[in-house]
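subagent[fold] <- orchestrator: predict structure for attached chain, return tokens only, no commentary.
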Amino acid sequence: MLNKLEVEESFLTQDVKREKLIFTAIFLLALGLRILFLFRIQVIAPDSPNYIYLTNDLIEKGFVNFFSHGFANIFTIYPIFICLMNFLVKDILLSAELVSLIFGTAVIFPLYFIARKLVGVRAGLVTAFFFATHLYLIRYSGEVLKDSTLFFFSVASLYFAFAGTWKRSYLLFFIAGVFSWITVFVRLYGIVLIFAIPFAYLVSAIKDKRSIKEILINLLIFLVPIPLVGYAIFVIFVGPEKEFVIGSFMRFVTGLSFTNNKVYADNLINNIPKGVGDEYVELITSHFFLVATVEFINVLATTFTGFLFFFFVVGIYLDRKNILKDGSRLFLLSFSLPFFLFDYGIIITHCFLSKRQLIPLIIILFPWSAVSFTLGFWWIKDKMSVSTKGLLRWLSRVVIPAIFIIWIVSISLYNMKPYRAKNVYQKESGKYIYEMVGEESVILAQKYDSIVVYYAEGNGVYYHSPLEVRKKLDRFNPDFVLWNTHLDPLPDVFGVLEEEGLIELDRTFLNNRDEYVYIYRVKK
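subagent[fold] -> orchestrator:
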């Protein structure tokens, strides 16, 4: 059935001009939806100020000094792209948004080329359509975050390695290696590529009975740029952040969370309504791996979105025989395996897995969602179009295209909603502080309130626990202290500090979820 899908393409997709026209339309749709979303963002993300500050550092200090400051600078070249864009538009925030937009949209090209080779033109176009309209991918293409850059270089690395395999091109393998280490420098998560590509190539090459000489040459060519990654890792392990990095690394490798399943249980039941959580703790603790696996599948399905995950599972089932026979399919599935293991390891050892962590994985799995969708969709359409009943033929020409139109309109309407409106109270808090004292105020806050610091144009000092507030109050002598009830109610320490005459409540800001920002002025 799948061979029929690949070989017997309809006139619509056999015609190269029509294929290019359809792909161009999908690309413009992807670009349009992302631009639309860009105008609906009300407030920047909590992590966004970091990249804006890093870009300012790069502009002020220069390239060499910028990369001499350790972990944060070495493993994010996102500010370099922002800086380059800033030469054109002379606005750092707009530059950052444009960089995310460009890279987030450009992913569609290597993804389509992979899917087209793998499952045919028709399913390749559907893969591109899924990418164009996926809400999470639209979102990260408008945010001032490095995720869209990571997505692009990850998929581009895969494409060059994938193309190098079936074209037997040493040059393409070298380019895959270069793009892989760029991905690592975008975000350390990209180091999975260093394992995923050689593993996928080995599996595929052995399946296709490639010579040992060819395999070794390709692997060596791919690994040529890797010493750069090794140097960067060496720098952070001996640099000022070495204690933090080594601690995090050892925690991940040794799986220290295995020793405290109760903590894991508490993390998993955070969203369970109060009063019913305790009964789950024992179950989760005694069936740790089962619950972790279920949670992993749940996050994966949610990130995919339910119906695309369903299509993926069905697509893998329908394609199971071809996967074992076809080296290209085996390459892509083998490539995804290290990402599965890495992400599963995160949920085991860190008790939490962000959806953004899974997006590189689901992008490369879209072709199998497209396979089952395409088979089912066009099977129904073909049956209806050859029916002797005029109504069914009419439905095949009207209803089927209408489904795509409704899909696009629904996504467009969703993107027209104000995004992150719940964080406007933080933006208002920052602007209020700026109006009172101007720029360069020192603000002691939780990391979540870096948004407030950004809009106040101040200097942030951050604490992780209320227990740190008094210590950092004495050490840094800030102008303001903030508390946000987004995570926890106002702790007693603020009342104690207020009674001691060290701080006084200046103002509160509230959002539509009854979350407050408490702004305390420090008495000098």
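orchestrator: received. Logging for downstream: The CA atoms of residues 25 and 129 lie 10 Å apart. The longest helix spans residues 355-385.
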